[in-house]
Amino acid sequence: MNVPNLDIKNAWESRIIKHDRQLFRAQFSPDGRFIAAGGQDKLVHIWELEGEKKKVLDAHKTWISSLTFDPKGNTLFTADYLGVIHCWNHQKTAKPIWTIPVADSNNVRAVITTSDSKHLISAGDDGVIKVWDATNGKQVTTMKGHQECVFSLTISPDGKFLVSGDLLGSIRQWSLDTWKPMRELNASLLHTREENFIADVGGVRSLAFSPDGKLLAAGGMKEAKSNAFCPGKPTVLIFDFESGKITNELKIKGKSDGPFNALRFLEDGTLAGHTEILHAASELTFWKTSQAEPLHSISNGSAYDLSLHPDGRQLLATTYVSGGSSGNGARKRFHEQYLPNTTNLRIFSLFSKPEGRE
């Protein structure tokens, strides 16, 4: 099978999957055959990409906040706003293999598996990173150091280090051999707390390593104007991972005012990121990390997750679609009913559109 050359400037939407409720997370499976997604309807949705078959996994009692696949098998881990984690064999059974009833005191905001598939790592509102045996859900250890909730986790390409990012802009590096802290990187530009704010705003919402492990990208926003709808300047900080110093600050083309919720490096070192915005189109943005200005951007609704297909040529954006007003009311013309927000799972092909393809 011939793999087309990357051509970011001619990327195009090759598929869209619509769902009638808002989904927060969606990921390609490691074998590229499935998409798993979860969000407000408390269900885990599994779409088969060939033939469009679909199944639903039902065990969560509240919104699903994060999910991840085992990189070497059929195992899927899903987590929710009550701190529960379920482990599934998504191809064979409709019931969890095992469950962690209290992985966090509140919302589990991030889960990730180690490269050898032996451990599941979770983090969230209580600021404590927890390590679990991926085969049975038994706790292995905890890693403490963050002073606020942890939004993001990533593992270095060599599988040796975990990196975590929190609300205050603290990025911490941990050894996966010893489970011990190694150092702290400063991403405080992504945190705002003015005197008239009643809460901290921002944080390290996303993290990603370059394929060679030399660069670490941290996404969020800076200079938040308020903590009502929390508008700010979407920002990505590029760190030289060896020195721990910021080498660049990446910008956007459009007018998004929310954080970069997801980042993914492509095989050639191009970085993809997605923002959110309250009342208008957001954008999927691509950069060469040595340049502050984007290489290319695609207008899209706000998105909370990005997933790169194993073929390296398809990027999945979990895109929010407003069902009515932005507050707690309904549309004016349907004032007697509240219309829920929905989701478009949009797949972008990262190459030129073949001739004859509409």
CATH topology description: Methylamine Dehydrogenase, Chain H
Kindly report the spatial arrangement of strands forming the biggest sheet. 1-30-29-28
CATH architecture: 7 Propeller
Instruction: State the distance separating the first and last CA atoms.
Output: 22 Å
Number of domains: 1
**Shape descriptor:** globular
Which stretches are poorly predicted, pLDDT < 50 over at least 5 residues? Answer: none
* CATH class wording: Mainly Beta
- Helix-strand string: EEEEEEEEEEEEEEEEEEEEEEEEEEEEEE
Question: What's the total count of β strands?
Answer: 30
Total helical segments: 0
What do these coordinates show?
The protein has 358 residues and is mainly β. The chain has a single domain (8-326, 339-349), classed as Methylamine Dehydrogenase, Chain H (7 Propeller), CATH 2.130.10.10. The chain is 0% helix and 47% strand. It has no helices and 30 strands. A four-stranded antiparallel sheet has the order 1-30-29-28, with no helix packed on it. It starts with 11 loop residues before the first strand and ends in a 9-residue tail after the last strand. The model has no long low-confidence stretch (mean pLDDT 92).
Q: What keyword list fits this structure?
A:
single chain, mainly beta, four-stranded antiparallel beta sheet
